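## retry 2 of 3
previous attempt timed out at serialization; input unchanged, resubmitting
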Amino acid sequence: MTDLALQSASELARRLRRREISAEALLRHHLDRVARLNPALNAVVVLDAERALQRAREADAALAGGTCWGPLHGLPMTVKEAFDVAGLPTTWGFEALRDNRPAQHARAVQRLLDAGAVIFGKTNVPVALADWQTFNPIHGTTNNPWDLARVPGGSSGGSAAALAAGLTPLELGSDIGASIRNPAHYCGVYGHKPTWGVVPLQGHQLPGEECPDATDIGAAGPMARSAFDLSLALDVLSAPLTAMTPLGRLPVSWRDAGVPPMRCRVAVVADDPLAEVDGSVKDALQALVDFLRREGVEVDERARPVDSATTHRVFVHLQRAASGAMLDDARYADAQQQAAARSAQDDSFPARHWRGLAADHRSWVHVDDERWRLRRQWADFFERFDLLICPIATTAAFVHNFVGPCWERLIEVNGRPQP
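## retry succeeded, writing output
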């Protein structure tokens, strides 16, 4: 029989509602597993066992009295360290924030609690949530549970490692530059970055930042060990479901096109000149393509929705501009100096990085215009296709590498070094 800690969140929630297992027993099972396995992984870096045990007992008492709190009633889970949980540290890996303990839950955390979840801890992140590795001076380094010498990804690296090792059945992550998708890929679990604004970001910010939702490039979303669990969690995290419009937030509803899976028109992008994909990843993707075709699915391997070089340039500028807007005056002035020191012809990644951090409103508007052109190209593409399948990253998880800034580190792709 599958260990309780490796069953899906959906199955565990069903068993809890049927009272086949108590919330307290299930929580203790996970806490015991954390005690045994976490020292080697360092995925769960903040524990809140006593409060969680009390809530689990209350969940059991409520169910015994005929009251169910919601679809996650009594389910133990962890959340990414960057989300506020009242009374627990939120540091984003910054030493200066070691003692930051918010008084309120993040909005997404509150939705999980309102649905009945029992949050018993927080999982590790890189400093500023800005790496595809997960290490910081407060909580140390998180390892990949499949190979401790390798990274779990980032920035939701602790989340993915905890899921893969069965330390938690469900997680709450966040994503700008693949921070949900990348660690899910590296650790072999499921992750979903929803459309911006679907899951609220209040309480996922550094102290002093007033409106995290104003940055229209980051998103919060679920991580799990099955696609069905992602759907369950997103139903909780997105209720009430709203969208940002020129008139403010308005209620919306999911639109299901009703296309049977085998009737979907599928495009596959297996490689790209901007970021060569390793043969090990392409081989796995080709096996999927072959399976889909055997099942009668229409697959196009030549279609390309947008130019990847343009997309990368636009993304880097907008992402760094969003980060730069949060810098204090001294760090913003330094970014301006770094950008001014580079020639207009310098199109290297460091140059793009500093120009984005130092961006003024005029330059942001020009690049945002390019984003809208790309959005229209994507819209046209999805008039012709229902799904796009592509690699999450160019390789499987790489060996820990802490030397220098991210853009100077190299990984091996098809026997050759690549950024």
